[in-house]
Amino acid sequence: MLKKRPFYLLAICLFVAKGCGVKNETKEEGPATRPNIVFIMTDDHAIQALSCYDGRFNSTPNIDRIAKEGMLFTNSFVTNSICAPSRATMLTGKFTHINGQIDNRIKFDSTQWTFPMALQQAGYQTALIGKWHLRSQPMGFDHWNILPGQGDYYNPNFIDKNGVKREEGYATNIITDKAINWLENRNGQEPFCLLVHHKAPHRTWMPDTTDLYLYDDVKFQVPETYFDNYENRRAAAEQKMSIIEDMDVVYDLKMLDAEEEIQTKYRKAFEGQYNRMNEAQKAVWDKKYNDLIADFKEKGYTGKELALWKYQRYMEDYLACINSVDRNVGRILDYLDENNLTENTIIVYTSDQGFYLGEHGWFDKRFMYEESFKTPLLMRLPKHLQSTQGNNKEHLVQNIDYAPTFLDYAGVDIPNEVQGSSLRTLIENEKPEWRDALYYHYYEFPNEHMVKRHYGVRTDRYKLIHFYNDIDEWELYDLAQDPSEMNNLYGKEEYNTITEDLKQKLVALQEEYQDTDRSTY
Ligand code: SGN
Ligand code: CA
């Protein structure tokens, strides 16, 4: 267990005036107003699609600014790589078997303790805008305005305390407008915590009309593992998230031809999304896609050619959605600058998990392999809280750590049940005491994409995974030698000692995180 308490005692003394938003003074730091928090989260944003992590595909100058002026966490992970479980993990600082949200199908118990609730009780103004996806009514927020379920890209419905309302425009822009509007009209006396949670760049990757032509002339580098044959990896072989096999030409890749000659399984479903657009939006959209559709029909791709065409088409739309996110993050940063808020605001950018951009031939997430186990994490602190320890943080951090970090900086006590640790420990200590291994547990099987249930452990070098339920398969990877996780070493004699060590670590983590009820796995 990590030691995470020492400075809370001091913090509690400083903030005895809990609940009435009193400003505090400390001798070392001058006026120590409690910092505001702006927590921006996107949905399915792969670290491969952020230029501060990976320069291959796109440029995200506004998001990168958070890392440039703050910190980039290069080993940031989730506990359970799927939407609702990740959101519940962040809100509670607990693994999903503890907060109950083990998959997307369950309704979140929003009466349980969450960090927004704790901040609200401590006098923070709290707001949530955008995707929620937890089914229950949000609690702990003075203001909330959310998308129903996954939400729509064009002219989306929003729900608030008064009901449902359709709003004209593009989701990423509207969510940002609403966030800025809330900032503009908030009570300027107390600190605030604002959660800006985008739908983008979630499937079906519908770009804003202004971004449609962005990648027209770009040919994206196809990942080396695109034509993976999944040798020695049964769970990987049995998934249904392959770009080649499972990505729908109409639903995912927008080949909705007016002649209705392209008939696919999900054509009707995409028609529903297309028909949300108004006539003006449709006109701009059609101008772009009609040419592509005509070309696609004429070429009549099959086999490998089709597989490669699909990859390029997917990347174009996915990255165009991210361009809108980047532009809108820029708007928030500008607002904070222009209103003298930057110097007392913690800004965090993350995603609910990572994503596959063709690695192993996939889209989607769920697996404990690196692309979906990792998630972006960028954090900019007010100057007086910034570390002198350098920009990149390489420690193994996880989304259970966000809640305790926010509370720590806000000077609010962290309940013992919280399983994560405050990142402040990493930021302020040269040699922090920190975890040397991560635990992971994914449950949503059988369901869409058919990723088997699994749990595992990852150290800075090795990863051990156990797939269970309808199979019983172990996988072991040496990430230093095989970062793409193609070579399953489990069962090889020369790795027996390493395997045994990892199994011990795994059991220790299951005990530490109280995931020992074997009847559930
Ligand atoms: C939807 C998507 C899936 C995706 C899940 C979970 N299909 O069901 O591709 O894996 O959401 O995503 S779609 O046809 O509705 O686009 S999550 O981010 O919400 O967990
Ligand atoms: Ca997601």
Automatic annotation (TrEMBL):
Tell me the PROSITE patterns matching this sequence: SULFATASE_1 (PS00523), SULFATASE_2 (PS00149)
Tell me the keywords, alphabetical order. Coiled coil, Hydrolase
Q: Which InterPro entries match?
A: Alkaline_phosphatase_core_sf, Phosphodiest/P_Trfase, SGSH_C, Sulfatase_CS
- Name the coiled-coil region(s): 492-519
Q: Which SUPFAM superfamilies match?
A: Alkaline phosphatase-like
Presence of keyword Coiled coil: yes
Q: Name one Pfam family in it.
A: Phosphodiest
Family membership: Belongs to the sulfatase family.
What is this protein's name?
Sulfatase
Q: Lineage from the top down?
A: Bacteria, Pseudomonadati, Bacteroidota, Cytophagia, Cytophagales
